[in-house]
Amino acid sequence: MKLAPHLHRIGNDIVAAYLVVTDDGVTVIDAGLPGHWKDLVRELDGLGLTPADVKGVVLTHGDSDHIGFAERLRRDHGVPVYVHEADAERARTGEKPKVASGPMKLGPTLGFFAYALRKRAMPTTYVSEVVEVHDGDVLDLPGSPVIVGMPGHSPGSIAVHVPLVEAVFVGDALTTRHVLTGHQGMQPAPFTDDPDEASTSLDRLAGLSASWVLPGHGAPWQGAPADVAAAVRSGAA
């Protein structure tokens, strides 16, 4: 789905990934679930492109519902997969602490897991090789994505700022649709390692120039990143 010039989304409000499309190729932000591969190929085909036009995958963190088809792109098409050094092991092995899921409602929770099963979430395909990135890096990829450290949801959670498309991709630093309750609107994401640190990290978005804030779960949000922290904290309250 085209959101704006050069900016596309695949998946839906349950799990989403994004494409930055330029004359130099495509940068994929997050890789959803393995079954989103067909969505990726379909979206690229509609643009007259193929997976060979993807120049890199940037993961906002290493959780299984964000790394989906990354290994397939890496293995079959030689596409490098970028992840913060603090989440590199998580992306390669799935090793992570157990955290409380928080509130849930039966319908949305079952819907989330049913969708994940349809998109072949099990077994998880981890990423054999990753390129480690750090806060402040500007990647040599289409759109020149900028890495913004956002620890909290995981130690290596990042936002990805792409000025070309006036967007900041936030992964699970926040959500606009809680996958376990169905609650809509800006709010903290579930399954967060350190909620206090995640809340503090939101302040790092304030200085970014963008008109889109794009989470891994929930509807795209149009507004200024400077307003994000207050909106999420209000949603938490």
Order of helices and strands: EEEEHEHEHHEEEEEEHEEH
What's the gyration radius in Å? 16 Å
Shape: globular
Broad structural category: alpha/beta
Spans where pLDDT lies below 50 across 5 or more residues:
none
Instruction: Please report the distance between the alpha carbons of the first and last residues.
Output: 32 Å
Strand elements, count: 14
Lateral arrangement of strands in the main beta sheet? 1-2-3-4-5-6-7
Largest sheet: 7 strands, mixed
Separate helix tally: 6
What is the averaged pLDDT score? 96
Give helix % range. 10-25%
Residue fraction in strands: 15-25%
How would you characterize the overall build of this protein?
The protein is of the alpha/beta class and 237 residues long. Helix content is 22%, strand content 25%. The protein has helices at 37-46, 70-77, 88-93, 106-118, 195-201, 228-236, and strands spanning 2-4, 7-11, 16-22, 25-29, 54-58, 81-84, 131-133, 146-149, 158-162, 167-171, 175-177, 184-187, 212-215, 221-222.
